[in-house]
Design brief:
Two copies of one chain form a homodimer. With about 325 residues, chain A is α+β, with helices and mostly antiparallel strands. Helix content of chain A is about 30%, strand content about 25%. A seven-stranded mixed sheet of chain A has the order 9-11-8-12-10-13-14. The first copy, chain A, has a four-stranded mixed sheet with strand order 2-7-5-6, covered by helices on one side. The first copy, chain A, has a two-stranded antiparallel ribbon with strand order 3-4. In chain A, about 50% of the residues are buried.
Chain lengths: ~325, ~325
Amino acid sequence: MLGGHILPRFNNRYLDLLGDSAVLPSFDGPLCMTTDSYVVDPIEFPGGDIGRLAVCGTVNDLACEGGIPQWLSMGLIIEEGLEIEVLDRVLESAAAAADEAKVQVVAGDTKVIERRGGQISSLMINTTGIGSLRANIDLDPGRIVPGDGILINGNIADHGISVMSAREGLEFETAVRSDVAPLSALVFDLFDSCIDIKFLRDPTRSGLAGVIADLVENTGMTVELDESSIPVSRAAAGAADILGLDPMNIANEGKIVVVTAEKDRQKALAVMRANRYGRNAAAVGRFTSVTPPVAELVTSAGGRRVINRPYGEELPRIC
Amino acid sequence: MLGGHILPRFNNRYLDLLGDSAVLPSFDGPLCMTTDSYVVDPIEFPGGDIGRLAVCGTVNDLACEGGIPQWLSMGLIIEEGLEIEVLDRVLESAAAAADEAKVQVVAGDTKVIERRGGQISSLMINTTGIGSLRANIDLDPGRIVPGDGILINGNIADHGISVMSAREGLEFETAVRSDVAPLSALVFDLFDSCIDIKFLRDPTRSGLAGVIADLVENTGMTVELDESSIPVSRAAAGAADILGLDPMNIANEGKIVVVTAEKDRQKALAVMRANRYGRNAAAVGRFTSVTPPVAELVTSAGGRRVINRPYGEELPRIC
């Protein structure tokens, strides 16, 4: 397993030693560390798979904290009977994502567990990431003031629609592909442009609505979102409609919500649009001093409605 | 979940911030990093549980590489329906083990998955650990020479027997309790005594026999083990006999195999015996220049037999 399937794909000077722990060079400055387990069903879906998801999710969590992703560990929990071709594809995809994100997988673990039912044998992956913290950043929602802008780097809901469609065997006129992608380079582009970034968060599990709800709670300020400016593809919007879901609540894996001072809004949009994962970036809302604080959507029809925090957890999971 | 069950137990300044990543102070010198997923069945067994196991296993992997364990991430994958009392006990146990090992859990993740069968809902845990590398150590099996001694810090086979007995509902005359324990303090005691340690390894999954097989392979030297000096309790030996297993192949979770120069053997034994997890430490074998290289057991009856590497993987897993 290790020699034939894993090492050739994650070849680097640290992993190859295969000791009890990887020994890594020293760091300058503070570290950041994050962990996530990925249990998506199905493990392959249009636009991605659990391998790309596990690498990008953890890379993006580091980037959202101002970290420069450096090293990942990868723990595979494999149900017995998983087709080796599937495992190979997932590992290949994880390795490609790691290359793209410029991180090295330096520690790994493989466990085989009994198959517990389900139509096919599955796979879960935990990735834990370490990054060095960028200097001269101040990500703190406490710095947000009325007038600050809320931006997103492109279309929402693609990941969740892709996974749910694959799971249910739904076929829509236009296939929706997951947006799963490493966003560290896009985040670095923003920091390198001296834009005053006050907050970054990847709107995964509970979608854009979940991040907005957090922002209202953390700042005590009202957020006003402009529905017509929120980018969503016609295919994803149509699929969400058929599934009875609101795109605002659907998971993304290649999106980042950025809060920036009003003066930097246009510059931030330009920087994001110049990145391959930000071509469809948009300013979707702003903070206001309206009280009591609430998350409010100005609809395309000109009405207003309150956005609630999505609640509960759907199973099987989508990220 | 997070507020009620996890944060109160792993309270520390880094975890409490609940950001996308924990931000940690900088390190001096090289780091080490290791990851392991724990899928033991049952999750509670005499002498321990999956929480203590997940902390100690990762702490011990760092210590075996010469690392000073500092920070852990903990990813919980919980089957829906897991009794909250069981989860609480496991988390309490993990927190106590982390305190004992002087590590902080700084990053966490919880996923709930569909229950997939089995009599009760279960739990899997991934822990990833970061440590700082101790200065002035040279753990390298390439330094081993004929005459060097092989030591172990106490009775073998207790963990595997404990888990297998709990799983099968076997009751032996004397209950065998898992030896699961954090061994970083014992390892530090050895280093602090200026003993020339050439190799450290925790004999988990494939037992003492697995580590010995690795040593023969890595050094190209013969290892001669003295069966009568290998510490094993009467209860564990009896249970292994009933289960048709060789204690040498049974997993341990609180043991460490130490290779040291012959001149340091007695001193190392004394240091280990002074630690609470080393009271029954013993010198169990030595390297010789006999060729071809082989792992050989000198039996209590005076015979000799070759020790083979345990092969295959039993399911359900025991660590």
